[in-house]
């Protein structure tokens, strides 16, 4: 667990046995949401196609406290889905799809979430909802910067956001939309979906928060602007969802658009990935210099001895 996560968990009061369902709970972001909810004492159910914990955490103790359930949000009948979803008091959806097929993008982002939120609403106890959507600056690129098929992706996100609001009786104050640009984290890199690991992503995040990059991002259009915005750690996204799901203060839940808003709400400290990398490099260079001061003269002496021996 990194420092960001520790700070977030310390900032919340100890949880209670609130019933929270995480749609897409076996995924990259959803599994972290499940982890943080368990650590706060919530009663957690995960609903996904696999119905199991992902590989990165399947041997961790907290996974035993999650009710891992399997359901296909697109093919299940209302009755079958309701039997799996039950009567949650709060829900978090991390369900989404990427690709090039407009039908898959619309169904995976829109229809799947619409079915999930509708089932949670039918349970009759839903108080709050959180949904991982997409940054408005990414959405603004759909007209002139992205291929035509991407429009289905954004249409799906709109359907999902509408369904989330409908699930709590149309009360927008009970819904938190978490809208990242690019999410990084974990231990590995990936292409589909695109992913970079924690160390690399944290370095890029810190770099792009520097004033020159912030100014450049504010001035540039479209995808150039998006590329210059700092990515956000998956732990921060998950922490924001958990905070919203467990927030019984009665205050309006926010829309968190972009990395800075997500980090601020979830209480994340500034990323130090770049600083950490530079510090590590400096330490390694210092170690190498210390080694070289001792070993290089030894090597030179050995070579000189060999040369002298060959002359005899």
Give a nutshell description of this structure.
With 312 residues, the protein is an alpha/beta fold. The chain contains twelve helices and nine strands.
Please explain how this structure is put together.
The protein is an alpha/beta fold and 312 residues long. The chain is built from twelve helices and nine strands. The strands form two sheets. A seven-stranded parallel β-sheet has the order 3-2-1-4-5-6-9, with helices on both faces. It has a two-stranded parallel ribbon with strand order 7-8. Strand 4, helix 4 and strand 5 (128-132) form a beta-alpha-beta unit. Helix 2 (30-39) crosses helix 10 and helix 3 (78-85) packs across helix 4 (102-122). The model has no long low-confidence stretch (mean pLDDT 88).
User: Order of strands across the widest beta sheet?
Assistant: 3-2-1-4-5-6-9
Largest sheet, in brief, is: 7 strands, parallel
Q: What is the element string, with H for helices and E for strands?
A: HEHEEHEHEHHEEHHHEHEHH
Shape: globular
User: Which strand-content bin applies to the residues?
Assistant: 5-15%
Structure annotation, total helices? 12
SSE inventory with pairings:
Layout: H1 3-11, E1 19-23, H2 30-39, E2 43-48, E3 66-70, H3 78-85, E4 90-93, H4 102-122, E5 128-132, H5 136-139, H6 150-167, E6 175-179, E7 183-184, H7 198-208, H8 211-219, H9 222-227, E8 232-233, H10 234-246, E9 255-257, H11 259-266, H12 273-311
Parallel strand pairs: 1-2, 1-4, 2-3, 4-5, 5-6, 6-9, 7-8
């Amino acid at each position: 667990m990194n420092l960001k996560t520790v700070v977030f968990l310390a900032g919340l009061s100890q949880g209670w046995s609130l019933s929270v369902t995480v749609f897409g709970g076996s995924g990259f972001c959803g599994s972290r949401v499940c982890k943080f909810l368990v650590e706060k004492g919530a009663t957690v159910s995960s609903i996904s196609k696999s119905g199991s914990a992902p590989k990165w955490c399947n041997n961790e103790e907290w996974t035993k406290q999650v009710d891992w359930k399997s359901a296909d949000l697109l093919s299940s009948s209302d009755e079958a889905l309701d039997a799996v979803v039950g009567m949650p008091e709060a829900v978090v959806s991390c369900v989404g799809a990427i690709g090039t097929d407009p039908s898959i993008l619309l169904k995976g982002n829109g229809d799947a979430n619409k079915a999930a939120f509708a089932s949670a609403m039918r349970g009759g106890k839903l108080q709050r909802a959180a949904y991982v959507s997409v940054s408005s600056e990414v959405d603004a690129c759909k007209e002139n910067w992205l291929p035509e098929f991407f429009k289905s992706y954004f249409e799906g996100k709109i359907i999902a956001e509408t369904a989330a609001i409908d699930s709590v009786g149309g009360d927008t104050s009970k819904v938190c939309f978490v809208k990242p640009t690019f999410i990084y984290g974990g231990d590995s890199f990936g292409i589909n979906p695109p992913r970079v690991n924690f160390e690399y992503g944290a370095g890029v995040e810190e770099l792009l928060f520097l004033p020159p990059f912030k100014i450049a991002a504010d001035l540039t259009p479209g995808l150039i602007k998006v590329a210059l915005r700092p990515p956000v750690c998956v732990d921060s996204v998950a922490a924001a969802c958990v905070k919203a799901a467990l927030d019984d203060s009665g205050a309006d839940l926010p829309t968190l658009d972009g990395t800075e808003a997500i980090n601020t709400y979830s209480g994340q400290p500034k990323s130090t990935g770049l600083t950490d990398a530079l510090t590590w490099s400096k330490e390694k260079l210092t170690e190498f210099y210390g080694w070289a001061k001792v070993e290089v003269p030894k090597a030179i002496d050995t070579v000189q001895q060999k040369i002298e021996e060959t002359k005899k």
